Amino acid sequence: MIRSEFAALAALGPLPAARSADGAKLFEQEKLLGAIQKPISDDEAKLLIKLFGPDDCHGTRWTLLHLIESAPGWPMVDCLEDSSNEWLCRLRDRANRAAKSRVVE
Hints:
The chain is about 55% helix and about 0% strand. By secondary structure, the protein is mainly alpha-helical. The termini are far apart.
């Protein structure tokens, strides 16, 4: 089940580039992101992955990234195939580093 904050974010579309951001829309997106409680579901993470844009948009992308990483099924490899998006590459790199740093007992 997808919570209402996620549906509202999806309706607003991807986060904009910082230089072309509409202030009111960006404020609404940031407000919705701030209202999300962790952890999020895997389905919610898959929805958020689609919202990355071209840059960090005044730090908003980091909020998105940390929410995605809180999903119980993270990392979801099938969501990280697009190598043209810097933020998906960043998520994939972080997942790979985390997997390598785990101590096997």
